[in-house]
């Protein structure tokens, strides 16, 4: 899977159907324009890989996940347009591209599991809230840092975190103050689902184990489940019931259903076919 890697992102396949995506821009994984563009490209490319069934997102650096944005490396902040309205439109367009790049993890059809260790500040929260499952090492430290640099978080934290966390008061407190909070508080509020004893090695291994479990399931069932869960987050119960009716009217016809039933009957792990690429478009 080396062909998927970027300048600051390493992609490997430690076990069948599972990808490990590692952020690797020393010394602190701070994001420049080139870095976030690469992030979006890598995840959009992963979305087209038919053999993939689960993805783990981690840091390759031993001490931390990400320190957030490298403001000196963001092209959109250096516009020379003198007119405020036109300058604002340029900033808006650049920020929208930034949002879309980070959202690539969310729109990836396969489950994305974030494995966080050490510092995860600012943009790191935007990134992990776009993931489906989040594990934290016990040494993880988080901060919604944007107010300390004079802005409101605009790449996804304020949109997604209130829908993830079970404690809205804590969300507001953390967003208003930018104070650091640890893995225990992150688990308590619902930002992470598991705190793993140890550091980078241990949390990445735990995330890979979870990815391995998911990778043994029907890829059709898992893909559909992610789509329906995402829809449920934004819609009423009845709207979501109607949505899953449409999805499953097709997906229940998959051969994966019979494969899963046969595996259960024979008391063995079923082996599912990979997804298939669509035929090339005809001109």
TrEMBL record:
It comes from the Eukaryota. GO terms for molecular function: delta(3,5)-delta(2,4)-dienoyl-CoA isomerase activity. The keyword Transmembrane helix does not apply. GO terms for biological process: fatty acid beta-oxidation. It holds the Pfam family ECH_1. InterPro entries: ClpP/crotonase-like_dom_sf, Ech1-like, Enoyl-CoA_hydra/iso, Enoyl-CoA_hydra_C. GO terms for cellular component: mitochondrion. Gene3D superfamilies: 2-enoyl-CoA Hydratase, Chain A, domain 1 (3.90.226.10), Lyase 2-enoyl-coa Hydratase, Chain A, domain 2 (1.10.12.10). Keywords: Fatty acid metabolism, Isomerase, Lipid metabolism. Pathway: Lipid metabolism; fatty acid beta-oxidation. Belongs to the enoyl-CoA hydratase/isomerase family. This is Enoyl-CoA hydratase. The lineage of its organism: Eukaryota, Fungi, Dikarya, Basidiomycota, Agaricomycotina.
């Amino acid at each position: 899977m080396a062909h998927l890697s970027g300048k600051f992102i390493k992609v490997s396949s430690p076990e069948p159907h599972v990808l490990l995506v590692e952020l690797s821009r020393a010394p602190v994984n701070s994001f420049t324009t080139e870095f976030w563009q690469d992030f979006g490209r890598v995840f959009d490319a992963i979305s087209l890989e038919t053999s993939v069934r689960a993805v783990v997102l981690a840091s390759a650096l031993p001490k931390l996940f990400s320190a957030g944005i490298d403001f000196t490396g963001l092209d959109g902040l250096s516009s020379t347009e003198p007119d405020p309205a036109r300058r604002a439109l340029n900033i808006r367009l650049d920020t929208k591209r930034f949002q879309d790049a980070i959202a690539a993890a969310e729109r990836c059809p396969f489950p994305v599991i974030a494995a966080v260790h050490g510092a995860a500040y600012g943009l790191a929260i935007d990134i992990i809230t776009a993931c489906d499952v989040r594990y934290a090492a016990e040494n993880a430290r988080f901060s919604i840092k944007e107010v300390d640099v004079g802005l409101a978080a605009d790449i996804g934290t304020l949109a997604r975190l209130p829908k993830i966390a079970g404690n809205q008061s804590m969300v507001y407190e953390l967003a208003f103050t930018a104070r650091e909070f640890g893995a225990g508080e992150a688990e308590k509020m619902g930002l992470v689902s598991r705190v793993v004893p140890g550091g980078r090695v241990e949390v990445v291994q735990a995330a890979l184990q979870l990815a391995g479990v998911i990778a043994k399931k029907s890829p059709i069932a898992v893909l559909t489940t992610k789509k329906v869960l995402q829809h449920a987050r934004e819609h009423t119960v009845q709207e979501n019931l109607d949505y899953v009716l449409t999805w499953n009217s097709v997906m229940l016809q998959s051969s994966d259903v019979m494969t899963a039933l046969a595996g259960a009957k024979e008391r063995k792990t079923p082996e599912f076919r990979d997804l298939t690429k669509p035929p090339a478009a005809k001109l």
